[in-house]
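Quarterly update from the structural biology core.
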Amino acid sequence: MPSDPIWKRLPFARLGVLVVVLLVAGEQFPLTRLPMYATFGPTADYYYVADATGQPLACAMVFGTSTANVKKMFRARLNALVAPRGADETTATPAERLQAGEELITYLRTTGLAAHAAVPAGPVRLVRVEVRRALTGGFAQTEELLAEK
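Predicted structure, tokenized:
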């Protein structure tokens, strides 16, 4: 007669109990697979950098950073700019958005040139795209030119 407890002798029994518990619990926090994606807001946005003709640039190759970082850098600059008056990015004026965008374009050009990348000589545009659920189903998007320098 073995002296080991039954849970050591039957490892698949432990697995079976775990499967049953998870099936009964379902997709409930903290057992959900992707809790951060449980719900989506009505809008989302992304940013990109384009040349003077509006053709998007490969930020990683041209400026040495990703478009996700471009979004973070713009928002950080904008929030720092409006913070002294007690505002945030949602209440920023068009002039403040323009200033933050131009500062970011200057920074991107500087870092791109320092890395000896092929930074366009002409104007560069910073564009924000907002994607939202359409009332008729599907999605709709709007583009906003934040800065061009």
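The chain has one domain: 44-148.
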